Amino acid sequence: MPLPYPHLFIPDVTRLTPELLRRRHIQGLLLDIDGTLMPTHQDQPLPAVLAWLTQVRQAGVALCLLSNSRRGWRVEAFGKQLGLPWRNLAKKPFTGGFRWAEETLGLPCSHLAMVGDQIFTDVWGARRAGCQAVLVESTDTDLWYFSLRRLAELPFRKERP
Ligand SMILES: [Mg+2]
């Protein structure tokens, strides 16, 4: 069983420039929503994140939304707004959602990266599925259980090849 270390650990999604993705042979991104593209209790990403989404799409990077959220309406609304394939209740770190993404984007996991804010769902799932795992600093610092989760994640918050 692979350990849940990220391949890449960045402050936020906007650091993933098309140039960086090209260098790492990443042709598609599986995007977590809550805590990654926007805080769980907000409805819209920051303008900088929307601008980044446009930039990577124009560079030809394939995108989809892969969320564990039970609030399907939220994932669906966001997917429709952006015109991206979406899946909620993805059950990360199980790999079913990753297989769905491979099929949907027409790319193998070896050319995909999961971008998320949680070690034990996004990063671990990506490692298990054979995707690159990109960890971002969570935007969910206001959640009551945030510091507990951070504590559990602490040993794995470093990049490993
Ligand atoms: Mg998240």
Describe this structure in words.
The chain is α/β, with parallel strands linked by helices. The protein has a single domain (8-156), classed as Rossmann fold (3-Layer(aba) Sandwich), CATH 3.40.50. 36% of the residues lie in helices and 15% in strands. It contains six helices and six strands, in the order βαβαβαβαβαβα. The chain has helices at 18-23, 47-58, 72-82, 96-105, 119-129, 146-153; strands at 8-10, 28-31, 62-66, 86-87, 112-116, 132-136. It has a six-stranded parallel sheet. Helix 5 links the parallel strand 5 (112-116) and strand 6. The radius of gyration is 14 Å and the shape is globular. The mean pLDDT is 96. The structure holds magnesium ion. The site of magnesium ion (MG) has 7 residues, from loops. Magnesium ion (MG) is lined by residues 32, 34-36, 116-118.
Unreliable stretches (pLDDT < 50, length at least 5) are none
CATH architecture: 3-Layer(aba) Sandwich
The biggest beta sheet is recorded as: 6 strands, parallel
H/E element string? Answer: EHEHEHEHEHEH
Mean pLDDT: 96
Chemical compounds bound to the protein = magnesium ion
Total domains: 1
Radius of gyration: 14 Å
For the termini, the CA-CA separation is 15 Å
Largest beta sheet: what is the strand line-up? 1-6-5-2-3-4
Q: What features would you highlight for this structure?
A:
single chain; 161 residues; alpha/beta; Rossmann fold; six-stranded parallel sheet; 6 helices; globular; binds magnesium ion
